[in-house]
Amino acid sequence: QVQFVESGGGLVQPGGSLRLSCAASGSAFSAYTMSWYRQAPGKERAWVASIASGGDSTNYADSVKGRFTISRDNAKNTLYLQMNSLKPEDTAVYYCKGQRPTSRGLVETIWGQGTQVAVSS
């Protein structure tokens, strides 16, 4: 089964940038629609951005539109989230999620373990 492992989180000052990565094991990465979610302390997990399996379509939450860019490299089995102009309210644990349809008409969903992003001066 495919597993996802996030990396790239850390502490950054307001206005700074970070790039998160989500590395997939196995060879089925290109079949998954991929998304980034985040969960701030005391809040529910929230959707941030999604990208189609082929990378030709992306969508963003209004709160990050124009500042974050989701991308993927299927040859490297890796998903990215470039985060610019970071704000303290972007502080959260960031998770990647992969989804693909199964042969039985269901949807397989796999989450990564998360990476912490803290935006503070």
Q: What layout of secondary structure does this protein have?
A:
Blueprint: E1 4-7, E2 10-12, E3 18-24, E4 33-39, E5 46-51, E6 58-60, E7 68-73, E8 78-83, E9 92-101, E10 107-111, E11 115-119
Parallel strand pairs: 2-11
Antiparallel strand pairs: 1-3, 3-8, 4-5, 4-9, 5-6, 7-8, 9-10, 9-11
Describe it for me?
The protein has 121 residues and is mainly β. It contains no helices and eleven strands. The protein has strands at residues 4-7, 10-12, 18-24, 33-39, 46-51, 58-60, 68-73, 78-83, 92-101, 107-111, 115-119. A hairpin with a 4-residue loop joins strand 7 (68-73) and strand 8 (78-83). The radius of gyration is 14 Å and the shape is elongated. The model has no long low-confidence stretch (mean pLDDT 96).
Give descriptors for this structure:
121 residues; mainly beta; seven-stranded mixed β-sheet
The averaged pLDDT comes out at 96
C-alpha end-to-end distance = 40 Å
Strand percentage, roughly?
Answer: over 45%
Into which percent range does the helicity of residues fall? under 10%
Rg over CA atoms, rounded to whole Å, is 14 Å
Task: Specify the biggest β-sheet.
Answer: 7 strands, mixed
* Overall geometric form: elongated
> By helix and strand content, what is the structural category?
mainly beta
Poorly predicted runs: none
Work out the helix count.
Answer: 0
Q: How would you classify the quaternary structure? A: single chain
- How do the SSEs run, as a string of H and E? EEEEEEEEEEE
The strand count comes to 11
